[in-house]
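Hello again, I could really use a second opinion on something today. I've been staring at a protein lately and its backbone has me curious. You're getting the sequence in one-letter code plus the fold written as tokens. I'd be grateful if you could look everything over and explain what you see. No rush at all, and the record is pasted right below:
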Amino acid sequence: STTNDMTGGLQKIKWSWTCDSAGAYSEASTVRPNGMIYRLVTIPTDGPTDAYNVTILDADGVDVLNSQGLNRATATTEQKGPSDGLGVVKSSLLTLTIANAGDAKSGTVILYVLDLDKGVLG
């Protein structure tokens, strides 16, 4: 499921996910963020397999995380920020895909997008 906060210059999309028996999950956002990917947070909640993969694809099939969501930890909350080389999104639905996480494992992915039209945080 997704929740969104599109107020101010920093947009937030939060996915809560549970994998199928093949260790996979996929869900599109319900909003179309616009701007620089500012921060990625991955929170494992039910021991996903170590080195599971998170990708977030735009409508063109491009991973806006620039592969920074690969090899996530099984029990540790991890973050990536602006200096890690995250990408951009232009008014596109985003599809979260989880791979190799294990049967019925779960977690949360939070994505922050800096709206370049507003140009400020907050």
